[in-house]
Amino acid sequence: MSTLSKSALTGACTAVLIAVAACGSGAPAQDAKDAPQGGPPPMPAPITLSSRPGAGPGEKLFIEKCVMCHGPNGMGTGLLARRMDVALLEEREDLPADYVIQAARMGIGNMPAIPRGEVSDADMQQIADYLASKTPKDMGGTLGGDAR
Amino acid sequence: MVSKRAQGPDPARIRQARAAFQAALGADNVFFGEEDAAAYNDKFAVDDTLHHPSGAIAPGSAEEVQAALRIASEVGIPLWPISRGKNLGYGGSAPVLADSVILDLSRMKKIEYDEENGTVLLEPGVGFYDLYDFLKARGMKHWLSTPGNSWGSVVGNALDRGVGYTPYGENTSKICGMEVALADGSLVRTGMGALEGSPTWQLYRYGFGPAWDQLFVQSNFGVVTKMGLWLMPEPESLMGMDVEFDNPEDLGPLIDTLAPLRREGLLQQSPTIGNWLRAAAVLTTRSEWTDQPGALSDEVISAIRKKYRVGWWGVSLRLYGREEVNKAAYPILEKAMNDLKPLSMRPAQWKRGEPLENSGWTGTPISFPMQNANWHGGRGGHIGFSPVLPQSGTAAMAQFKRTYDRYREYGMDYQASFAFGERHLINVNAVLLDKDDPAMMGRVDPFLRQLVADAKAQGYGEYRTHLDYMDLVASTYDFNDNALLKLNERVKNALDPAGVIAPGKSGIWPGAKGGTSA
């Protein structure tokens, strides 16, 4: 269902990973010689509710429950970038809502399952509809609907 | 009575408890479907057949936690409390005893903030990202101390003695006052919180008489429903450096250089010396470099290090506080590092008002270090082995050599760090798993047991361990025929006679008499 690509370690992915190494957050830093002039690119600040005050209901829930791993510097983004052209879930145009729910509830790849005690069925549906909002309806998405 | 050798509660008892939980918490917060139970399994388990819960309940308040405990005690159902359940590498959200019911506290997310005194009173469901957002919305006047996986709970991390990297890095030592529900459903407040209406609950740790906070840390004596925590005031400036070292033997001198600076107080943070794979496992996968099984060769290690320009060891040091003080301390730190002839040294500097380095050194929550779960390319994970060492270069080098030899003997890739406390080091090993390789997975358990035995032979014990090894590690604390474990069991039996709170946590089982569970 998704756009798989083996161009993983190029482009945006590489930029994210190099930034990770160069900023020394929890991992040893890279040699400054490898960094662009003026130092490495700054790591992005985490996306949280206060940084997107205008977020809609599904987007708010995505930020509260998911973006720590599926934001610009998150574990999920880093791992998806190894095998997909579009690693950020919010930018995907091929995410059926049902697939989002199944992946979250069962876990997928290195992602643990998200239990209903943590995210209720109603909230999960809103998150899935939000992430499916750039995906056409005939692909299981909500594009053209009123989810966003 | 719940006991160690029980197979878990029988289905009739679970049905009875389930109905009572639904009445007390609402049907929407009681989860006993097959998928519900599976969602709380340990994603990084070495043996996927172990530690399966029977279901979960999610109370929304301390009162509902009390009600759940009363029901569990009456019916005899073991509960396994989790704050957010992200204790990956140590068991995640799974219980020691199979068929326990998960007491999922992730809905409890209240934050009370005393800005003047720099304290918070948190419920267990508050994650590091939640607290970060809360503080950021109020001008970030206080910083967090975040672990490498900040997905989890602030309370849960401190209660399992997790660490961060700032001067407040030893999170459990910043706990100040708790509210705890006991097995009989009663509620106590510790320290100054025992005094009704006290304004000093989050200001003075000890109260009057015995101090109980640490008795609810890594224990199963109660369920913490609120926890006070001190936060570090935003410093005026940050100065330091990221330093890489070329050789495995550089570890000892580096520790002997940093330890006196840490003890003296010139260095107030808790730096962590990580090996090359700690950096590389986040950046790449093993198959990019070799298809050979067994531990990586020196040639492969050199190639990976060359590409990413990482040392065999690396450390990030930061000074926090007044700019004038940092400027005076920086040259001392710089000279100490230069004297060790590092491979590279990159300075870092920040002053209030400038854009902040979004890293663990500034208490910014992060999750990317967990990318090491994908080192082997497929279904992966890691399991922790973390003995406590003296702050000695000789001891650390001996531990490193002994452990590294074992990794090679068992054909495992070595990812490790040496994390400073005030007077100790913790040698944190993240043993990287390939769950698609049955031969490797078969070696993991004997390997872990060997590491525990090797450490014990030196008088070292682990500060924290995975569900699989709680009994084993508890048994290594063996002074006077495991007298401490026997004391813990006597306390357990007194406070939780039905044995319903987290049986087996830290090797403490209900119903044990005189160390029979050791």
UniProtKB/TrEMBL annotation, chain A:
Signal peptide: 1-21
Region annotation (Disordered) ranges: 29-56
Name of this protein: Cytochrome c
Cytochrome c domain residues: 53-135
Alphabetically ordered keywords of this record: Heme, Iron, Metal-binding, Signal
Entry-linked Pfam families: Cytochrome_CBB3 (PF13442)
Automatic annotation (TrEMBL), chain B:
Keyword Lipid biosynthesis in annotation: no
Alphabetized UniProt keyword annotations: FAD, Flavoprotein, Oxidoreductase
PROSITE patterns for the chain: FAD_PCMH (PS51387)
Positions of the FAD-binding PCMH-type domain: 49-234
Source taxon at top rank: Bacteria
Pfam family, one: FAD-oxidase_C
Required cofactor(s): FAD
Keyword hit for Lipid metabolism: no
Name of the molecule in the record: FAD-binding oxidoreductase
Classification of source organism: Bacteria, Pseudomonadati, Pseudomonadota, Alphaproteobacteria, Sphingomonadales
